[in-house]
Specification:
transmembrane, membrane, transmembrane helix, mainly beta, 77 strands, TamB_C, 54% strand
C-alpha cells in the first residue's frame, strides 16, 4: 500500500508539471492560431472561455479562465484559471499566469521558449475522498488521457521543442488530503498536507529526460498542521525519480539551518513517508545548526528531546544506519564531540549499535541526562565535565569503552565492557581499568568510607552501589583512600561485595605492610568469616584508625559466624602481636578472642593476651547490655545533678522495662599493659596482674558492682601500694533513687614530695541525694595521722560540703575541725562560700571564712595563728621549723585577684640550716591600684634578704615588680626551685635580683655571688663545691666557666645555662671539662643496673628537660674507679628511698613494704637518658656480679671502652669491650663450695646492647697443692704438688659454655712422662676430665683411674670417704665464711678432705688479712706447722720454726694504688732419686709503678695542687672496695 502511495505521489508531481505545461501549451497554441483574429483581450477571453467550456464537457471537469491577455510572440497573461474536480471542489487554481516568451513564431511554431513563468497565487488541492477509489488528480489525469488519445495510424510529426528558463511562484498553496487516513497528532502528516505561503524563484531550469535541474532561490513555505516553516532554501537542486540533490545548500527550517550539501536517494518519492528506513542521505555539513524539535517533525521519536546540535562533517546512510566522518559536534551546555561515528538503529537510541572513534572531546553529564536512566544519572552526574578520547563500540546499554577519560573525579583509562541496566545494581562491567586519583568515594556516594583511587588491572563486577556492588579485582592499586587515609602499593586478586569478600590482598604501604587471604561470606543465614592476615607493620595513628601513635604487628586468624554483636560466635587469634607506642614496645605475643554460647543459652566472651585478659559470662545479649548499661550511667549522672524538674521529665517519658532479667559477670586482668595505658593516661600506672571482677544485673533493679586488689597504683607523683577498690551501685528502673558506695583502701602511699604515708581509707555512700564520706590516713613510722568525715549534699544548683568533727594528729598533737562548718559551691565553681572552717590545736589555728566570688566586693580570708612549720614536714618531706603567723584576704579571685597579707616566721630553719626571721606584708595602694610588697629575712638583726616592690593585679603578663637584695643570704632558699635537679644546697650568696613576671612564672634578672656553695647532683649522687657568680636573666640561669670541686678537691670547669619559663619547663645545657674528677658515686641501692664510683678525665654534658634529660659523659677512667654490673636480677623486697632505674626488659613483681629507707635521697629518673662512654684503663676495677648473695663475682681490671646507656624509657644498654689485665673469679657451687679463680690476662668481655647478653672469653685458674695419684708417681708419696684447674668461659654472660682442664706446675722432670700420659688419657674422655677437675675443687685430690681393682674392692669405702670428704669440705667452707664474717679484713679457706688421722694431717690452710685500710695485704697457703703433709719419709724432720707453704705480702705504697710492692716466700718439696726428698725455699720480690699520661710533658710536669677553701674530704660511697677490706 505504501509503495502504491509513493508511486502515486511521484506521478502526481510529474503529472502536475505536465498538466501545467500542457495546459499552458494548449492554450498558447490555441491562441496562437487565432492571434491574428483575436488581438483583443476581451475577444481572447471570450474565445478561451468557450474553449474551456468545451474542454470541461470533454473531460468531465469544469475548467474556467477569468481573463486572457495574449501579446503574440512575447507574452501571455492568464487570470483566475481554475479546474474543479468531479466533486466540484477546487483542484487547480492560479490567480495569474504571466509568461514571457521567446523564439516562438508562425514559421517556427514547434519551438517555444519561456524565459520566465510567473505564477501568482497558484493553488493545488489533491484529495482522496472517502467514497472514491482514486485521488481527484488521478481522475482528472485519466480524463485528459482519454481526450488526448494518440492516433497510432498517423505518421509521427516533428517533436515540439519547449524550454523554460525561469519560474517564479508567489503566495502559492498546496493541499493534499487523504480522507481515508486518520490525521496524526504530531509531526508532518504526509496524508494531510496543508502548505501555503509558497514563494520561490527558480532559474537554470533544465529537463534531462525525467530529471529536472534547477537553481532555487528564496524558497519559502508554511505547512500549517505541523507548523513547519521553511524560512529559506537556496540550492542548486536536481530532482530525479530516484534521488533528490541539493548543492550549495542553505536550508532554514524553523530554527534549524543546514549548509553545504545534501542528497536524498530513494526508490520512489513516496519513500519520504518512511524517511528513516527508506531514504539514504549523503550530507556534507558545515557549521549547521540542527534542533531536535525540527527533526521531530519528520522523526516524532525525538519530539521530547528539545535539543540543539551544531554540527560539521560528512555523513552517508540512512537515519537507521549511517556512517559519519570528521564529525565536529556541539551539543547541550558543554558537550563537544570530535571524531567518526557509525550507527545502526536510530532513532531508537537504546537499540542503536554505535561505533564511535573520538578525537579529544568533551561531554557534560547534564547534557546527557535525558539519555540516562534516572537511577544511573546520579552516578554519571558526579563525573562532571568529562574530557575523553578513544573508541566506543556497542549499544547504549552494552558497549566497550577503550579510551581515556579526564573527569571531575579524576582520570580513567579503560578497555572495558559496560552493560547498563535500568536497575543500577544489575549493571555489569568487565575489562581493563586504569585510574589516576579517581574519587571513587564521590562516584559511589560514600566519601566517608572511600576516597580517591589510583590503580590498573582487570575488573569484573556488578552494580555501582556500595551496598549491593560485587567486584572482582585483579589489579595493582598504587593508592586508595579509605577512611581518610591514602593506602599505597596494593596488589589484590579478590572478589569484593557486601555479601562476599574473598581472595588475596597484599599491601606495602609506608604505614601498613599486610598480606591477607580468606573469605567473608555474608550471603548465608549466619555470615561466616574465614581470614588469615599477616600485618608486619600498621601505624594506626597514621592510618587514622586511632588518635595515638600505635604501631601494630601481628598474624591474625579469624574464624567466626554472625554479623551483629548478638550473634557473633567463633574465635579470632593474633600471633606474635606487638604494639609500639613511641619508643615503647608492647608485646602482646598471642591474643585470642572467643565468643561462644552453650546449650542453656549462656553466652561467654573471652579475650586473652600477654597484656590483659577479659571475660564476660551470663545470659545476656551484647547489644542489650550496652544499651542498659549506658542508660544506667546516664541516670546516675542525672541523679547526681539533683535537677528535680529534669529528673521528673525524664522518668515521665521513660518506658517501663519489658525485657527479660539477665546477669553478666565480668573479669578483667591487667597483666602487662602499662605501656599501652601510658599512651592514653601517661600519668597512670597499674601493677601487673591486677584483677578486676564485676557483675551487672538487670531486672526490676539495675545493680552493678566492681572490685579489685591493686598491688601498686601510681598517678603522676602520687603512689599507692597494696590497695583495694570496690564500687557497688543499684537503682530502681523508674525511680531516681540511687544507693551506691565507693570504698578505696591503701596500705602505703607516697604523695609527690611528701613523706610516706599508710593506711589510707576512703569511703563514700550515696543514698538518695546525699553522699556521706569518711577518710583516714597516717604517716609511715610516725604518729601523724588524720581522720576526716562529712557529707556532700546537692541543694538546687549547688554542692554543699560539711566536715564533721574530725581528728588530725600531727607530731603527737591532736588537731580538730570545728563543727558547724560548711562549704557551698555554685555557679559552676565560680562562687564558693566558706563558713566557720577552722583547724586548730591549742593556740595554733588555721581559719578560713568568706567568699571566693566574681564579685570584687566579697573576699575570702585565711588567718593562721602560732602555726609551727614543723607540722608541714609530713606534707613537704622537708625538714622545716619555725612559727608562722599570717593573715591573708583575697578578692576577685576569678578575675584579677587582689591578695592582702601580713606574715611573720620566727626562727625559720630548712633541714639543719638556719635561715632567719621572716617578716613581710602586702598592702593595697589605692592611688596606684597595686599591692605593695615588703618581705625580709633577718639574721642577727641584719636583713640578709630584702624583697620589696609591688604587684599589679591589672597586669596579666607582668604583675610582679620586685627587687630582691641578698646579703649573706643562705643559698638553701633557692633549693625548692632547683630540687628536680639538685639537692642538699648550702652556702651563702650576695647580689641583687629583679623579680618580674607572674606569680606562677617569675622572671629573675640579676646575679648572685655564691660563697662556699655546695650541692648534690641527684642523678649522679655526687657532691660538688664552688665559689663563683651565677647570672640570672629572664629566660635562663647562666654559669660562666665556674670551677667546681669534687670531694677529693679535684676540679672541673662548668659552663652553660639552665633555661626556663618562669622556673617551669626547665631545660639544661651545661657542659663540663674535668680531670681526675668524680662523675659517678652510686650504690646498688640507688641503681640496680650498674653502680659504683667513677673517677675520670674528659667531658660531660647535661642537656634537655628534667623529664627528658640527657647526661653524657665521655671520658677515660682514673685510679679509684670501680664499676659494678649486677646480673643476678635481685630486687629489694622493700621500696628504698633512692634513685630507681626501671628495666622494662626484665620482669619484676610489684612489691609492698612498710619500712622506710634510711637517709638515702630519692629521685625519679623516668625520662632520663644516661650515657657514660668510658675508656677503661687498668687503674679501674670492673665487677660483674652473678650472685651477690653467694659471692659469685668476676672482678678485675683491664683496658677497653664501654658505653653504659639508659634511655628515657629506662632501657639499659651496654656496648664495648674490656680486655682483662688482672682479674679474679670467685666460683661458687650451691652456696657450699667457694673457690677463688685467677683470671689470666688477655681475656675479654664484650657487650653489644643487652647487658645481660654480653659475650665473655675468659680463662680462669685455681691451683691446689695435692698428693698425686700412684698411677703418676708409681709409688706412695705424701708430697704435695701444685695442680691447676683451668676453666675456659666462652659465650653469653648468663649462660657461658664452660670447658675444664688440668695443668701441672713445678713437678719433677722425672714425672713428666707419666703426667703427659695421664693428661692425654683424661683429655680424651671429657666426662673423666670433668670428674677429675671437680675432684680437685671439691675433694682436693685426683682419683686414680688405673687402679680399678682397688676401686672395685673398696667401692663402699670410697663412697663413704667421698661422702665424708664432701661433708668435710662443706664444713671447711662454712668455717672459713664464719671466720671471715668476724673480721671483714680476714679471709680463710680451710681444705679438709676427711676426718681420718692422715686427712687431718693433710689439712690445707689458705688465709689472707688486710691492714691499714687495704694498704697491706698478707697471704699464706699451705699446711699447719708440725704437719708432715709434704713427705711420708721418717728421715724428713721439720724444724720447729719452719712454716711450710707460700707466704705473700702486697703493699700499696700510695693510696691510689699506682705504686705497689710485692714480696713472696715459697717452701716447695722436691723428690730426687739420688738425694731423696727435700724442700727448697725461695724469696722473690717486685715493685710496680703505673702512671697514665697523654704526653711526655704531662708525665714529667710537676703538679701544683692549690688548696683553696680546703674542706674535709667526703667519705667515698663504695661497697666492696680493695682498700676497705674485700
Amino acid at each position: 500500500m505504501e509503495n502504491k502511495t509513493n508511486n502515486k505521489w511521484t506521478g502526481v508531481i510529474k503529472t502536475t508539471l505536465r498538466i501545467v505545461i500542457g495546459l499552458f501549451l494548449f492554450i498558447v497554441l490555441l491562441l496562437a492560431g487565432l492571434m491574428f483574429a483575436l488581438r483583443q483581450s476581451s475577444i481572447q477571453t471570450s474565445v478561451v472561455q468557450k474553449a474551456s467550456k468545451i474542454l470541461s464537457a470533454k473531460i468531465g471537469h469544469q475548467v474556467t479562465i477569468g481573463r486572457v491577455d495574449i501579446r503574440f510572440f512575447n507574452k501571455v497573461i492568464l487570470e483566475k484559471v481554475k479546474v474543479l474536480d468531479r466533486n466540484q471542489e477546487e483542484l487547480f487554481y492560479i490567480g495569474e499566469v504571466e509568461a514571457s516568451l521567446s523564439g516562438f513564431s508562425l514559421q517556427n511554431y514547434r519551438k517555444l521558449t519561456i524565459e520566465t513563468l510567473k505564477l501568482t497565487q497558484p493553488h493545488a488541492a489533491f484529495v482522496r475522498y472517502k467514497t472514491a477509489d482514486s485521488m481527484n488528480l488521478s481522475v482528472f489525469l485519466a480524463s485528459l488521457k482519454k481526450l488526448m488519445k494518440t492516433d497510432t495510424t498517423k505518421t509521427a510529426k516533428t517533436k515540439f521543442d519547449f524550454n523554460i528558463y525561469g519560474l517564479e511562484i508567489q503566495n502559492g498553496y498546496f493541499r493534499y488530503d487523504n480522507q481515508k487516513r486518520e490525521p496524526v497528532a504530531f509531526g508532518m502528516d504526509y496524508q494531510h498536507l496543508d502548505i501555503d505561503s509558497i514563494n520561490v524563484k527558480i532559474s537554470e531550469i533544465a529537463f534531462l529526460g525525467d530529471t529536472i535541474s534547477m537553481h532555487l532561490t528564496d524558497l519559502q513555505a508554511h505547512e500549517h498542521k505541523s507548523n513547519t516553516k521553511l524560512k529559506n532554501l537556496d540550492a542548486h537542486m536536481i530532482y530525479a525519480p530516484t534521488f533528490w540533490e541539493f548543492a550549495d545548500l542553505d536550508l532554514r527550517v524553523n530554527k534549524s539551518n543546514l549548509g553545504h550539501y545534501v542528497r536524498f536517494d530513494y526508490k520512489r518519492f513516496w519513500n519520504f513517508t518512511s524517511f528513516n528506513d527508506s531514504v539514504r542521505v549523503t550530507a556534507s555539513l558545515d557549521s549547521s545548526a540542527v534542533f531536535s524539535d525540527d527533526i521531530a517533525i519528520f522523526a516524532p521519536q525525538l519530539k521530547d528531546w528539545h535539543e540543539k546540535i551544531l554540527i560539521s562533517g560528512e555523513a552517508k546512510g540512512y537515519v537507521r544506519r549511517f556512517n559519519a566522518q570528521n564529525i565536529d559536534l556541539y551539543y547541550g551546555e558543554k558537550t563537544h564531540i570530535v571524531g567518526n561515528l557509525s550507527a545502526d538503529g536510530l532513532p531508537r537510541y537504546k537499540e542503536t549499535f554505535a561505533d564511535i572513534k573520538l578525537k579529544p572531546s568533551v561531554i557534560l553529564a547534564r547534557d546527557l541526562k535525558k539519555f540516562i536512566p534516572a537511577k544511573n544519572y546520579a552516578l554519571v552526574e558526579r563525573l562532571g565535565t568529562v574530557k575523553l578520547q578513544g573508541d566506543f563500540l556497542g549499544f547504549y546499554s552494552d558497549f566497550v569503552a577503550h579510551g581515556s577519560f579526564a573527569t571531575a573525579l579524576g582520570k580513567v583509562v579503560s578497555d572495558i565492557n559496560l552493560k547498563i541496566n535500568k536497575n543500577p545494581d544489575l549493571s555489569t562491567y568487565k575489562g581493563y581499568l586504569k585510574t589516576d586519583r579517581f574519587a571513587l568515594g564521590k562516584f559511589i556516594g560514600n566519601v566517608r568510607t572511600l576516597q580517591s583511587i589510583t590503580m590498573n588491572g582487570q575488573v569484573k563486577g556488578t552494580g555501582f552501589n556500595l551496598a549491593s556492588a560485587r567486584l572482582n579485582l585483579d589489579a595493582t592499586i598504587q593508592s586508595v583512600g579509605i577512611l581518610g587515609y591514602n593506602y599505597r602499593y596494593i596488589t589484590t586478586d579478590a572478589t569484593l561485595s557486601q555479601e562476599l569478600v574473598a581472595g588475596k590482598l597484599n599491601i606495602k604501604d609506608p604505614n601498613l605492610e599486610l598480606t591477607a587471604d580468606g573469605k567473608i561470606n555474608l550471603s548465608q543465614k549466619k555470615p561466616t568469616f574465614d581470614l588469615k592476615t599477616t600485618i608486619n607493620r600498621a601505624n594506626l595513628q597514621a592510618l587514622k584508625l586511632l588518635n595515638k601513635n600505635f604501631v601494630l604487628q601481628t598474624k591474625a586468624s579469624l574464624n567466626f559466624t554472625g554479623l551483629t554483636l548478638d550473634n557473633l560466635l567463633g574465635q579470632a587469634t593474633f600471633q606474635n602481636t606487638t604494639l609500639t607506642y613511641g619508643k615503647e614496645i608492647i608485646n602482646f605475643d598471642s591474643v585470642s578472642i572467643q565468643s561462644s554460647r552453650n546449650q542453656q543459652g549462656q553466652r561467654s566472651i573471652a579475650a586473652s593476651s600477654k597484656i590483659l585478659d577479659f571475660s564476660a559470662t551470663g545470659n545476656f545479649e551484647v547489644s542489650r547490655f550496652i544499651t542498659d548499661f549506658t542508660t544506667f550511667v546516664r541516670e546516675d549522672i542525672l541523679s547526681f545533678k539533683s535537677n528535680q524538674s529534669a529528673s521528673e521529665a525524664y522518668y515521665q517519658q521513660k518506658k517501663n522495662y519489658t525485657g527479660q532479667d539477665y546477669e553478666l559477670n565480668l573479669a578483667f586482668r591487667f597483666k602487662q599493659g602499662n605501656s599501652f595505658l601510658k599512651a592514653y593516661v601517661p600519668e597512670l600506672y597499674l601493677a601487673e596482674n591486677t584483677l578486676f571482677t564485676g557483675n551487672f544485673r538487670q531486672g526490676r533493679n539495675s545493680i552493678f558492682n566492681l572490685y579489685s586488689h591493686l598491688d601498686t597504683l601510681i598517678y603522676g607523683n602520687y603512689k599507692f601500694y597494696n590497695n583495694d577498690f570496690e564500687i557497688n551501685n543499684s537503682k530502681l528502673q523508674n525511680s531516681p533513687t540511687v544507693l551506691a558506695s565507693v570504698v578505696f583502701s591503701s596500705r602505703n602511699q607516697q604523695f609527690a614530695g611528701a613523706a610516706p604515708s599508710e593506711n589510707l581509707f576512703l569511703e563514700g555512700i550515696w543514698n538518695d541525694s546525699t553522699i556521706n564520706f569518711a577518710t583516714n590516713i597516717a604517716q609511715t613510722n610516725s604518729t601523724n595521722k588524720a581522720s576526716v568525715s562529712g557529707n556532700i549534699s546537692f541543694p538546687p544548683d549547688k554542692v554543699q560540703i560539711i566536715l564533721n568533727q574530725s581528728n588530725i594528729n600531727i607530731l603527737g598533737k591532736q588537731w580538730s575541725i570545728r563543727p558547724n562548718n560548711n562549704i557551698l559551691i555554685g555557679a559552676a565553681g565560680k562562687e564558693i562560700e566558706v563558713n566557720g572552717l577552722e583547724l586548730f590545736y591549742g593556740n595554733q589555728s588555721v581559719n578560713v571564712t568568706g567568699q571566693a566570688s566574681r564579685n570584687p566586693e566579697k573576699e575570702l580570708v585565711m588567718e593562721i595563728k602560732n602555726f609551727q612549720l614543723e607540722n608541714l614536714v609530713p606534707l613537704l618531706n622537708q625538714q622545716i621549723y619555725g612559727i608562722l603567723n599570717a593573715r591573708a584576704s583575697a578578692s576577685n579571685l576569678f578575675n584579677k585577684s587582689i591578695i592582702l597579707s601580713k606574715l611573720s616566721v620566727d626562727s625559720l630553719r630548712l633541714d639543719s640550716i638556719y635561715i632567719g626571721e621572716i617578716s613581710g606584708s602586702t598592702d593595697w595602694d589605692k592611688n596606684e591600684d597595686k599591692i605593695k610588697v615588703d618581705l625580709g629575712v633577718f639574721r642577727s638583726n641584719m636583713r640578709v634578704v630584702s624583697v620589696t616592690g609591688d604587684y599589679n593585679p591589672q597586669s596579666e603578663n607582668n604583675p610582679l615588680n620586685l627587687l630582691a637584695v641578698m646579703d649573706e643570704a643562705p643559698i638553701k632558699l633557692v633549693e625548692p626551685l632547683l630540687k628536680t635537679l639538685f639537692s642538699d644546697l648550702s652556702g651563702i650568696m650576695e647580689g641583687r635580683v629583679q623579680i618580674n613576671g607572674r606569680l606562677n612564672a617569675p622572671v629573675l634578672i640579676g646575679s648572685a655571688f655564691v660563697t662556699n656553695g655546695r650541692f648534690r647532683v641527684n642523678y649522679l649522687n655526687t657532691y660538688y663545691s664552688f665559689s663563683d657568680r651565677i647570672y640570672f636573666s629572664d629566660k635562663d640561669i647562666t654559669f660562666r666557666n665556674i670551677k667546681i670541686r669534687d670531694m677529693f678537691t679535684n676540679s672541673a670547669v662548668i659552663a652553660g645555662t639552665i633555661q626556663h619559663e618562669g622556673f617551669r619547663n626547665m631545660s639544661l645545657d651545661l657542659k663540663g671539662d674535668f680531670r681526675k674528677f668524680m662523675v659517678l658515686n652510686t650504690t646498688r641501692a640507688e641503681n640496680s643496673l650498674y653502680y659504683g664510683t667513677a673517677i675520670a678525665t674528659g667531658t660531660a654534658s647535661l642537656t634537655g628537660t628534667p623529664s627528658n634529660l640527657s647526661i653524657n659523659v665521655n671520658a677515660r677512667s682514673e685510679a679509684g674507679t670501680k664499676m659494678s654490673i649486677p646480673l643476678d636480677g635481685q630486687q629489694e623486697a622493700k621500696r628504698q628511698s633512692y634513685i630507681q632505674f626501671v628495666n622494662h626488659k626484665r620482669l619484676r613483681q610489684d612489691s609492698v613494704a612498710t619500712d622506710s629507707a634510711a637517709d638515702v635521697p630519692r629521685v625519679d629518673l623516668a625520662g632520663i637518658k644516661l650515657n657514660f662512654n668510658l675508656g677503661i684503663t687498668d687503674d679501674a676495677e670492673l665487677e660483674i656480679i652473678f650472685d651477690e648473695e653467694t659471692g659469685d663475682i668476676v672482678r678485675g681490671s683491664g683496658n677497653g671502652r664501654i658505653n653504659l646507656n639508659i634511655d628515657t624509657r629506662g632501657e639499659f644498654t651496654m656496648d664495648g669491650q674490656v680486655e682483662i689485665v688482672k682479674g679474679y673469679y670467685n666460683f661458687t657451687l650451691y652456696n657450699i663450695i667457694r673457690k677463688g679463680f685467677n683470671i689470666r690476662p688477655g681475656g675479654t668481655i664484650t657487650w653489644n646492647g643487652d647487658p645481660y647478653a654480653g659475650i665473655m672469653d675468659l680463662t680462669a685458674t685455681y691451683t691446689q697443692r695435692i698428693v698425686l695419684p700412684v698411677s703418676i708417681t708409681q709409688e706412695q708419696s705424701n708430697i704435695r704438688y701444685p695442680v691447676t684447674a683451668v676453666m675456659d668461659l666462652e659465650g653469653r654472660l648468663l649462660a657461658p659454655e664452660i670447658k675444664l682442664n688440668l695443668e701441672f706446675e713445678d713437678t719433677p722432670s722425672t714425672l713428666e712422662t707419666q703426667i703427659n700420659a695421664y693428661l692425654a688419657d683424661i683429655r680424651n674422655n671429657q666426662d673423666e676430665l670433668n670428674r677429675q677437675v671437680f675432684n680437685l675443687l671439691i675433694l682436693k685430690r685426683l682419683s686414680d683411674p688405673s687402679n680399678t681393682a682397688q676401686a672395685n674392692v673398696g667401692a663402699q669405702v670410697d663412697n663413704a670417704l667421698g661422702l665424708t670428704s664432701s661433708l668435710s669440705q662443706a664444713l671447711s667452707n662454712q668455717l672459713g665464711n664464719l671466720i671471715s664474717q668476724l673480721d671483714s679484713n680476714l679471709e680463710i679457706d680451710i681444705g679438709l678432705d676427711g676426718f681420718s688421722n692422715q686427712q687431718i694431717n693433710d689439712l690445707q690452710l689458705r688465709l689472707s688479712y688486710s691492714l691499714f685500710k687495704g694498704r697491706l695485704r698478707l697471704s699464706h697457703e699451705g699446711g699447719l706447722p708440725g704437719s708432715n703433709n709434704y713427705t711420708n719419709s721418717t728421715n724428713y724432720n721439720q724444724t720447729g720454726t719452719e712454716v711450710p707453704g707460700s707466704w705473700r705480702a702486697d703493699v700499696y705504697l700510695r693510696a691510689d694504688g699506682k705504686l705497689r710492692l710485692k714480696l713472696e716466700y715459697n717452701i716447695t718439696p722436691y723428690s730426687y732419686s739420688t738425694f731423696g726428698q727435700t724442700t727448697v725455699s725461695s724469696l722473690r720480690g717486685s715493685i710496680l709503678h703505673t702512671e697514665r699520661f697523654d704526653t711526655f710533658s704531662e708525665l714529667f710536669a710537676r703538679r701544683k695542687m692549690r688548696r683553696r677553701d680546703r674542706k674535709a674530704t667526703e667519705k667515698i660511697i663504695i661497697d666492696s672496695d680493695d682498700r676497705v677490706g674485700l
